[in-house]
Amino acid sequence: MHFKISAVTLVALLSGCVSTSESTSSTAQKTVKTTSTPALLQVKGASAEQIANRLWYGDSEAEQLPPLDAAELEDLWQRIQLQLTFNVPQTRPIVEQRNFYSQHQSYLDRVANRAQPFLYYIVQELEKRNMPLELALLPIVESAFDPFAYSHARASGMWQFMPATGSRFGLKQNFWYDGRRDVIESTRAALDYLQYLYNTLEHDWLNAIAAYNAGEGRIGRAIRANKKRRLPTDFWSLDLPAETTVYVPKLLALVDILKRPDDFDIVWKFIANEPKIAVVPTDGQIDLAIAAELAELSVAELQALNPGFNQWATDPDGPHQLVLPLTKADNFKRLLAQTPAADRLQWQSYTVSSGDTLGKIARDYKTDVSAIRRLNNLTGNTIRIGQHLLIPMSAKAAEKYELSQQNRIARAQGRAAGSVKTEYIVQAGDTLWDISREHKVTVAELAKWNGMVQRDTLKPGQKLVMWHDSDSSVTTAVTRTVNYKVRKGDSLARIAQRFSVSIAEIVKWNNINTERYLQPGQQLKLIVDVTQV
């Protein structure tokens, strides 16, 4: 049913009514709720009657009114609402999703809080490209507007890019930086991707949105199959995966609730229709703690606006820019201009000792090999004992960078009640499967505790955390020493798997240089738990 409210009545409401009021038109009764002077329905430079007619009357009845500029609305949600164009059929999947959202006001409040800094930017980018404003709601479905969201399928960021798709659309991913979490860059990439999907898949936005979830190949095959059978190729006619058949209705349910929130007793938490952030160039790498001081923010506040940076500093190879609150940007620029480049990072002199490698030094100082090579003008990885190196290091203790990748994983590994923590350093050739068997945990548990997915590749020197029940009964091992002769084709990983030991233990027991290959006939000492083999 389409409800109307008379312009005269709404004018009265807009003029300052401060309590719940009701007005009955000739066709239906409509309750308009207000808790204070309703700024949500105010437009700069427009009369209350213009707003009333534009928001509540159909287009045919508003044809004679002066055009209402959505950019002039006080509330950003209404700026989106005024430009919604998708038809929302009242199908069962949409109604089910709408019922879920309409019963979870607190969830939508949390979403609005997370969206607060970034939504205006997203809306502006959509308008510049003349793309549907419905797409501004897509991050709710993808991540609830959480730029740190990470799925079991390895999708990351507010727009939930997979690694390969992110790379395809220009999102850099390395030790220092993950563009999938950078709100500015990932928004650019997401809109590029959606525009490409729209142009590729019948110029149908619902097909494009479905492909954003299921992949363009899957939607393309479904379209071709329908064409072959002379069937329609719109989203509702395609044979699609179950997840995708729910994904699009989730978005349309949100669209329906935003179109007519009062019908579902939902309040979209006010977000001012004005810019909140500025993108400020840094002209080079900078420690996030130093940048936070210049911006008069906490490190956590700066990292929350710049979630793409994994470590304690920005990427030495860029992007050389930071997202800052608009109110802090000018002062930051002034103070940064007064800060010499040498003072934007801290360095430490290091003398190479026996056993050092660039990889080991980088791990110890929480940096990467390329940064050390660049700083010291090294063309390769060769270093010599006694050589002096400059090592970039953080200005503050690691725990001060609360939202760094390391600290986020540490929180995910937080101690469970009644459990004991075990740490393991990955050795060359290790796999999650090997480590899980050695420590009597599942691969799924090991991946979860360490912020990974089960098919992630391990790196030598990487630290893994495991938890065991402190009161769990562990069978006492019965061990014996086995002298094993290396055979042709053997590797440390294969031997470790065969005897249910770890590569690290074989290396320790036999003082093996892991940079050399095992030789057929070589004798190894293995301490084997005979209850496990």
Give an overview in words.
Residues 1-49, 56-62 and 470-478 have low confidence and may be disordered. The chain has helices at 7-14, 48-56, 76-81, 92-102, 105-115, 119-129, 138-143, 163-168, 183-200, 205-214, 216-228, 242-259, 288-295, 299-305, 326-337, 358-364, 369-375, 405-412, 432-439, 443-449, 492-499, 503-510; strands at residues 21-24, 29-32, 277-281, 321-325, 346-351, 388-393, 419-425, 463-469, 479-485, 523-529. The strands form five sheets. It has a two-stranded antiparallel ribbon with strand order 1-2. Strand 1 and strand 2 form a beta hairpin. It is globular and about 80 Å long. The protein is an alpha+beta fold and 533 residues long. Helix 1 crosses helix 2 (48-56). It has six domains: 7-68, no CATH class; 92-264, Orthogonal Bundle (Lysozyme), CATH 1.10.530; 277-342, no CATH class; 346-394, Membrane-bound Lytic Murein Transglycosylase D, Chain A; 413-469, Roll (Membrane-bound Lytic Murein Transglycosylase D, Chain A); 479-529, Roll (Membrane-bound Lytic Murein Transglycosylase D, Chain A).
Topology:
Blueprint: H1 7-14, E1 21-24, E2 29-32, H2 48-56, H3 76-81, H4 92-102, H5 105-115, H6 119-129, H7 138-143, H8 163-168, H9 183-200, H10 205-214, H11 216-228, H12 242-259, E3 277-281, H13 288-295, H14 299-305, E4 321-325, H15 326-337, E5 346-351, H16 358-364, H17 369-375, E6 388-393, H18 405-412, E7 419-425, H19 432-439, H20 443-449, E8 463-469, E9 479-485, H21 492-499, H22 503-510, E10 523-529
Antiparallel strand pairs: 1-2, 3-4, 5-6, 7-8, 9-10
Helix pairs in contact: 1-2, 4-12, 6-9, 9-10, 10-11, 10-12, 13-14
